[in-house]
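Board notes (copied after class):
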Amino acid sequence: MKKTLILFISMLLASACTTVYKDSVSDAGKMNKSSRAPDWVEGSSASYPSAVYITGKGSADDMETAKDRARGEISKVFSADIKAETSVYESERSVSAGGKSSNEYSVSAGEDIRTVSKKTLEGIEIAEVWQDKNSFRWYALAVLERAKIRRIYSEKLEETEEQINLYSAQMDAAENNMDRAMAALKVKNLMKTRDILVKDLKVIGGSGFASGMENISAVRTKADQAIAALGIYVEVVPANSRVSTEIAKTLVSLGMKVSESASNIDIRVACEAEVQPMQDPSRGSRWKWYTGEASVKLTDVRAGRSFLEFNASSKEAFVSEAGAKANAEKALGRSIGKKINEAIENYFDGM
């Protein structure tokens, strides 16, 4: 009786294991039930050649993890581009949150790339799974058809380049620096999108990748020159050479420049700044601390209106009073410069 019961329980367990085995692979593609490892476990797949497919392999103690790892191997091919795209998108979002006008255009460009990337990764399929009967380890092969994603990226590249040409023409037709810079910033945002698409298409490979822009370098240069041509005058009260210098250096590093006089300018920046010592937060410390506070107002001189006001701050320490003050002034200037750049981009995108 005891042997019969043990045999019956064993049959039940075997039946349960078989049921789970079938259910778990219902969406896994082709199940390779051979005792011998398929070619792709240790090498390339003859059924899914690299000229036609991007492939990824994964292994784990359970099948679902092996499948996820296989998909992840393919996503790594695009991960650098997706991260780049995401940083552009989040940067533009932060500008929108900080300013008073919206930044819908640049956000849309970011979302376009997110959509393309999502479509690409959704196209990944699990072509085959196999389990080693000795180690019981699972192996999965993920595949992504190159021709399918190449078509998606090529269509988006063509659309993006058409928009770049449109705003490039607006740069040429602009009658003043403000309008020219506005078109130039949209061109630069679209260039970010284009660069990601081109890089991905090179990874995808194969035929069908053809950029319609032969003058891309010239368009980039023209956009940079249009932004640099903006007349920006910064006045810091009370006068502070370190704050003023750092504002100018930051704007130059971001492709803009500061005018030396207030005549023939496009944007006026009025800045009230104060730098003062603060008590050391740690008793007995040898560090000296200074803080900087500034209120900044940007005015569109041509339109005769203020388009943004913001505050900036800094807090720096050094072993000497003079060093701490200098560091706080420089940090305050850098912070103001970056915010001015963001404000101008946000203002133009909202026009």
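Comment from the instructor: Residues 177 and 289 are 42 Å apart (CA to CA). DSSP finds nine helices and eight strands in the chain.
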